[in-house]
Amino acid sequence: MNPRTSVVWTPEFLTYQLSDDHPLNPVRLDLTMELSRQLGVLDDVDLIAPEPATEAELTRVHTPGYQTAVRSAPEAPFGVGHGLGTADNPIFFGMHEAANLIAGGSVRAAREIHEGRADRAVNLAGGLHHAMPDRAAGFCVYNDCSVAIAWLLEQGYERIAYVDVDVHHGDGVQASFYDDPRVMTISLHQHPLTLWPGTGWAGEIGRGDGEGYAVNLAIPPGTGDAGWLRAFHGVVPSLLEKFQPQVLVTECGADTHSEDPLANMELSVDGHRAIYHSLRDLAERTAAGKWLVLGGGGYALFRVVPRSWTHLLAVVLDRDIDPDRPLPADWIARAATHTRAPLPVAMTDNADPAFTPWGGDGADRVDPTILETRRAVFPLHGLDPDDPRD
């Protein structure tokens, strides 16, 4: 029996546009949905329109004073603070409404799973993982990831795993649940010495009752598919198998790609596809198939994000796309109206994402990262950090 999957989408998600020239341009979402339609990924899929998050849903994560600042910022003549009005987070009209609709979309996806209408649910507009309880950060006004997880906790869930594969540290989500053992946050990101926000060290393991439930893999810049996947498989499956989450939440930023202008990793679209396959497998093996999928970063707007996230939608829907499949001519023509850059012609970068599993031998440049993270958190879960069987 195929898992039931809900896709949350509305064209109103495209109103989250921080400025005309901001790197986080919603054209990436528009082109992703169009490519998915033209390739048949969304055939017979009823897209679910979200509603804005309620004040109670937002307040589980964001302070009332911050919400007031977001609402009033477009009309405030002298600024409102809270990280708003910066180059990363410029103020725009309709900011609260646009950000709140994305948060509501992620809550709706969580609700689809909780209320039994779906085993998997996806909100590609979500994944705004940097927003803090009282301030905007990193292009993120409201933290829809944390809002959706907090909603699930309110329904009585006791074990939620959050896996963040964005190139930037999932700092806002980690901060939301840093002392809460009900939520295991796992972030794989470019090393904090080399990339904003400068957090996500292996020693950040949680606090109090949450000790051991914050997990960080700080991956060296320049790492490609094989190294990234080696690090992922050297840490993540063991922890999820031990934790046995009731829901797996994933933030699937596409900015680890070699062409992304804001980071320094060397992954391919083929590597992204392999990551999504691994996440799907882990949801089935460790979370009884319950998988909440969110978007995230990704700033190679035309060549990378639409292909990567079309693969993501296809994997979530069990409609996997042959990487060699050509891109439709109509889609290429549509994308060409936005950019003069050469566009890809197929769903592949012609890369081989095969990797050698970590075996405790220290043979790869990512192995110090693997060992540092394993030694920081594995003993707290009864696992042997030096034994590749754990």
Walkthrough of the structure:
There is one protein chain. The chain is α/β, with parallel strands linked by helices and 390 residues long. It has one domain: Histone deacetylase domain (Arginase, Chain A, 3-Layer(aba) Sandwich). Helix content is 34%, strand content 9%. The chain has eleven helices and seven strands. It has a seven-stranded parallel sheet, with helices on both faces. Helix 8 links the parallel strand 6 and strand 7. The longest helix is centred in the N-terminal third of the chain and has 20 residues. It is globular. The model has no long low-confidence stretch (mean pLDDT 97). Pathway: Ketone degradation; acetoin degradation. It comes from Pseudonocardia sediminis. This is Acetoin utilization protein AcuC. It holds the Pfam family Hist_deacetyl. Keywords: Acetoin catabolism.
> How many beta-strand elements?
7
Query: What characteristic shape results from the CA principal axes?
Result: globular
Supply the CATH superfamily name.
Histone deacetylase domain
The CATH topology name reads: Arginase, Chain A
How would you spell out the order of helices and strands? EHHHHEHEHEEHEHEHHH
Question: What structural keywords apply?
Answer:
390 residues; alpha/beta; Arginase, Chain A; seven-stranded parallel β-sheet; 9% strand; acetoin catabolism; AcuC; HDACs; Acetoin utilization protein AcuC
